Amino acid sequence: MQRARLTKVIVLAAAGAISLSACAARTDSGSGGDSGAPQAAAPSAAANAADPAGDGKAQCSPVSIAYAGTINGANAALGQNILKGAKLAVDQHNKANPGCQVKLEQFDTEGTPDKAPGIVTQIANTQNIIGVIGLPFSGESKAAGNIFNSAGLVAVSPSATNPSLAQNGWKTFFRALGNDNTQGPAAAKFITDELKASKVCVIEDDSEYGTGLAASITKALGAKATCQDKVKTKQTDFSAVVNKIKGEKPDAVFYSGYYQEAAPFAQQLNDAGVAAKFVGPDGVKDDQFVKGAGDAAATSYFTCPCVPADQFTKFTDAYKAATGTDPGTYSPEAYDVATILVKGIDAGKKDRAGLLDFVKNYDGQGITKHFKWDAHGELAATTVWTYKVENGKIVRNTEIK
Amino acid sequence: MSMTHDLSSLVLAQGGSDWITFDVDSFLNQFWDNTIDGLSYGSIYALVALGYTLVYGVLKLINFAHSEVFIYGAYATWFTFYGLGFRPGATPDLPLLPLIGFLLLALVAAMAVSGGTAVALERVAYRPLRKRGAPRLVFLITAIGASFVLQQILFIWRGGNPENSIRLLRNDEVFTIFGGSVTIVTIITVVASILLMVGADIFVNRTKFGRGIRAVAQDPDTATLMGVNKERVVTLTFLIGGLLAGAAALFYMMKIPQGASYQGGFILGIKAFTAAVLGGIGNLRGALLGGLLLGVVENYGQSLFGGAWRDVVAFALLVLILMFRPTGILGESLGKARV
Asked: Does residue A19 have a pLDDT over 50?
């Protein structure tokens, strides 16, 4: 109860901060002209996308699903986007189906590999939880994936992209997006083809996600990756790395990590007069980055295996009505994942084995994409989009094909 | 991060992303840039280190909650900027006089909040223990506990995200030394830190209050017999440490506007404590020397070996120096009589 209230307060504070920043004194208009291609049209939701409401006649015994991931820890905004997306699907389902009330429980892993295993063990020991939305980050997924596997508890991540996660033989691991073996080359293609960069510095943090993605993009960039360096989680002073980049004079800097470090890093690069374009992956693509990076945000780009939600009007309107904010990165993916889990419960699955089997054999359309997993828990069809900053907001740019 | 992981990435390294590099070129090319940035960050270490050193000198207590005293100052800075009507986003162009006025206001606010936090901490956490004559270990555990309490108060109040960056002054280059760029924030930080530290040094070594501090540091019982009010000296010591940490917080926030985060003081606090030990804990000038040295060496290490080596280099330096000079570079001095 305490936690729920705390979350509410934080959400309200975040909403307040957003509305305040909207009337900030001076916001540079974006740099739309810099990118080669014009803004691509946002995809619209498929007519046959699964609707969590279903037919409204579902009957089930009361069971729970859980969100596990960062709620209040580091990079909390990324987790809250997911939690709110999932909650929307469950609420819509429960409202439409009086005969089947699914409870969404929330567990805060604080996004760290050292906290997640304890929390996940707790979830695994809670027998009425039969499915999990999470974990959002790759590092915690690696640390806790085996616990889900031993418990036979299906865990669908809406956002963990480290490629090796699918290679552990976990029968319970699924993800609702492409992995970084797709994002890395796609980001390399965007940086070289659209941003026309021939010298790129790849800077990675010390997370599972950051190092994996950096290896993937560095390989794809080949000779164009002219400098590399590493930073640490929670680092705030980047002067040594900035000085190194200043000496290299690259055309673009790719930061492989999360927004909490990316914001001060981008600002310090900008202050030092580094003219290179700043590109960050999905872990950086959040309003918190835009607000944190100050002047540097206006010239930043993002790559993300997430689909822009602009045209999913039914979803975005409901999301706005429920939370008061626009959907964030991976909110639609989380909505899709939660929808699949409640569909399983509606279909009569009432234990972990049943729901795991349902997800494994699932074959259906969601709002973001078609969901059908292979034996490793990877999707067949995945897309990577680029985003940019315009008038202080993150907007879609192009789809990398 | 196991050793095998490191070795495998060495073997698999492609295009230079090795686990360790010996990048002599960039070390030499960016030597002055790194020196200047290191001195600037090192001044912040030094100011915070003074708080550790003073309290240790007087009470033989390592006040682990001092990093939170610092971060409360960072929040005070942020709220001052916010209260003055500034919002996250592009940096405003302020005329010189209002800018100086606003920064001074933030300085006063940060020093007041940090100083107040330090004194309150002493009253609530340490004084009751002292009255009961608790053993030293109890103080240490209390310090760690107080650090968590102060941190969690911020977390419950403001949440896990850092406050969004607000700054009044772009960190632009003013001039260069041997090609190394010197920015406006660097100038303010280094000059103001040195002035504050000289002030603290004069206060402790030349004034009546300072004599009280030194007397208690040397021999608390005799000092009490000679009419020194020990409790007042302790409060004063925490106050000075807090005021300096508050000033450090403003400079830190000017350098890193995203710095107001509930855990944001932790690593900086550990580094500042390292700086204090490096220079000789209990020694004011040692804290200055230790802070500057640590700031510079960290940058050299990153430039030479790669960014991941920042902390390794910092603590390897500490171990090396303690091996040859167990009491730090300048030795413990606050507790020693000076002729």
From this structure: no
Parts of chain B with a pLDDT under 50: 1-17, 339
Reference B168, options B221, B101, B238; nearest CA is: B101
Tens digits of residue pLDDT in B55-108: 999 998 999 999 999 999 999 999 999 999 998 888 898 999 999 999 999 999
Is A260 an interface residue toward B (CB < 8 Å)? yes
Residue A45 has a pLDDT of 75
Numbers of helices and strands, H then E, in chain B: 14, 2
**B interface mutation test: which of A213, A236, A248, A274 has the most B CBs within 10 A?**
A236
Nearest to residue B154, comparing CAs of B250, B82, B257, B72?
B72
Closest CA in chain A for residue B16: A228
Contact assessment for residue B281 and residue B108, using Cβ atoms and an 8 Å cutoff:
no
Of A26, A73, A271, the CB nearest to B89: A26
Q: Cβ contacts (< 8 Å) between A28 and chain B: which residues? A: 90
pLDDT tens-place string over residues B272-286: 999 999 999 989 999
Our CA-based measurement puts residue B193 at a distance from the nearest CA of chain A, in whole angstroms, of 18
How far, in Å, CA of B337 to CA of B223, rounded? 13
Q: How is B77-146 classified by DSSP, letter by letter? A: HHHHHHHTT--SSSPP---HHHHHHHHHHHHHHHHHHHHHHHHHHIIIIIHHHHHTT--HHHHHHHHHHH
Q: Is the Cβ–Cβ distance between B299 and B34 less than 8 Å? A: yes
Burial (CB < 10 A; 0-12, 13-18, 19+), residue B204, is buried
Nearest to B306 by CA among B118, B56, B24: B24
Mutate to test the interface with B, among A21, A200, A243, A389 (most CBs of B within 10 A): A243
Contact at 8 Å (CB) between A179 and A196?
no
Residue range A133-147, pLDDT digits in tens: 999 999 999 999 999
**Whole-angstrom distance, CA of residue A28 vs CA of residue B284:** 46
Give A79's pLDDT tier (boundaries 50, 70, 90). very high
Residues 6+ apart with CB under 8 A from A46: A365, A367
A122: tokens are: 């707790």
Q: Which two tokens stand for residue B312?
A: 């390794």
Residue whose token pair is 């995203």: B258
ipTM: 0.88
Give pTM, 2 decimals.
0.87
